[in-house]
Amino acid sequence: RNDLINKNLNIIQNTFSASMILIILDVPFVMIFLLALFLIHYQIGLICIFFLIIPFLIDRLYSKKINKLSKQNELTQSSIFRIFDNVITRNISIKFFSLTNPIAKSWNFLANRIANNREDLEAEKNLLSSYSSSIGSLLTIAVIGWGAILAVEGQISVGALIGANILAARALMPLLKYVGSKNNLLLAENSMNEMNEYLKIASDLRE
User: Fold this and answer.
1) Are 198 and 12 contacting, i.e. CB atoms less than 8 angstroms apart?
2) Helix (H, G, I), strand (E, B) or coil at 15
3) pLDDT tier, 201 (very low <50, low <70, confident <90, very high otherwise)
4) Contact, 136 vs 176, CB < 8 A?
5) Which pTM was predicted?
6) How far apart are CA 60 and CA 38, in angstroms?
């Protein structure tokens, strides 16, 4: 039990850290980079807007599944804590009615379900991360490819093309980090719920 408490505390501490604050503060600067891209050439700015929308579309598609897994995990954890509470507070009754084996089977079943849900949640998180990396690569290819055409036609300079590539990557990075951090926020929320359950059990025992 102490290991689980320490794990939850570490998840909460790592999530609500200085890096998370920096991610949130970095998001408004996306508009500045986007404006600079439009000043270089409006077509490059439109390309960047298209790729900036993609992370939110992907997050919208996968957030439902991730939220569903998180809710299932939370409900299962609540059931485990209820069993844990009953074992502590009704130990004599459980032994008297010989309920130890049924409770142990229920505990193992719920523990396996939590493990499976967490594996599925981690798999969805890794898949979302791989999509984010692909978006960054595709943005670079699109900006350099279309920017090279504009440079050949004399509409922008080579230096402007290099600057546009840097600005486009810089504009996309905060959004990718923000979308990726939403999964960590969900994990932190689940950890806080588990800690609240522990606090309730401790409060009931003191009473």
Assistant:
1) no
2) helix
3) low
4) yes
5) 0.64
6) 27
